[in-house]
Amino acid sequence: MLVTNHEKLVSHGHRKGRAMALQILEGGLAAADPYANTRKLIRIEGNRLLVGGQPDMDVSGYGDEVIDLGEIESIYVIGAGKAVQYQALALEQILGDRLTAGAITVKHGEPHLLERIQVTEGAHPVPDEGSVEGTRRLVEIAQRATERDLVFTLFSDGASSLSPLPAPGVTLDDLRALYRLAIKYGNQTIIIRPMSYFSQVSRGRIMKRIHPARSINLIMQVGLFRRWGRRLPESSTFPPSWPPGTNRMADDVPAFRAQPWYDELPPVMRDVFERLDPAYDVPALPEFEEMRMSFWQPIDLYQMVEGARSRAEELGITGAILSSHLTAISGEAANVLTQIAYECEVYGRPFAPPVALITGGHLDVPIGDATGVGGRNQEFALTAAALLGQGRIASKRIIVAAMDSDGTDGPGTQLVGGEYICMAGGLVDGYTLEEAAERDIDIDAELANHNATVPLMQLDSAIHTGNTGTCLGDLRVILVL
Questions:
Q1: What is the pTM of this model?
Q2: Residue 132: pLDDT above 60?
């Protein structure tokens, strides 16, 4: 069981409903296991390395791969992200002594599972010196590879924070300012788009360092990667190994200038954008046409939400996936989804109870100048608790569970300090507001300061898993019994 404080979570409130909600969350995570799915995709038979047999995982569309290991001199593994270590572990076990060297960067505090692949710890969501050092190590390995070598790359969500190598003239503090703006405005694109011009590895630059070696790229993100169909994609995305697409600085800068955060960018970045400095622009897409590379996605969020639905059905509950990729402000999403749950409870529409309303995706919490400790799923749960405990949609038959699939919801204490560990999410019901009143906890005031972690912990309603090994965004279950 991934939830480590299960006993406390189900010791109060709607005990049966809470236990069922946790089982549904666990079912979703189990269905998207990066270790197991990597083992399904890659294997060795005799002197052949086989990659494939899983067409749903084939992103580039080149089909199954059969590699004669007698023609390969060295095999390397490099990567970064909140969910790459279990994939790296699978590769270590598959390759055995054939693995020459490797380096990955993971989030601080994650247990080290690897023996042959070097693990460096970095900070997330705001990078630190460890993030930079880990990136230097994987770049060194990438540049070591020759045309007779094979390189596996592993990049998951969190890679932008865990593999930052500042471009010349740009400091780590400059990069950190971007991440803080993304948190302030609740806008991930501040990291994904401007960052691509100030990193020595993003937007396919790491692939230029790997070339002319052959590469097999295992990627993981919240959504399902667009399939290439053997043709290089013309759109970019966050993994450093992904080709750069067609957008260039001249296209992006006008859009940047229109954003409220543009004037808050570090001066060196604004100067680059104002001059449209070609030295910082991304590589040209044709440079990637001669590279020997394939892309695979062993896990995706659709596996996760389907796994949650299947577990609900096993429990005798209708599983209804309302959205696999919901993007919204956390509190607003909680408001809408709890109203839908109430409609199910009272009127039996659009689904009659018992039903589990399931959503995936990635919510946002613009924190502004707030000083609280929390995360988007904790805020979702605490908002739902306030709604279910009073007013028009008050209910004792609705249970809400929300968690970040990687087990670390929000920045935790990285930005504010303190003794609270980073939680995975929250579990609440119609009794939570009463429990808060008994302990003199003002939920509305805590929400106003985006301080969800503290009251949820005080109410034994904060979900704790530690690192889960996966990273597919949020998983939320609203159970109507």
A1: 0.84
A2: yes
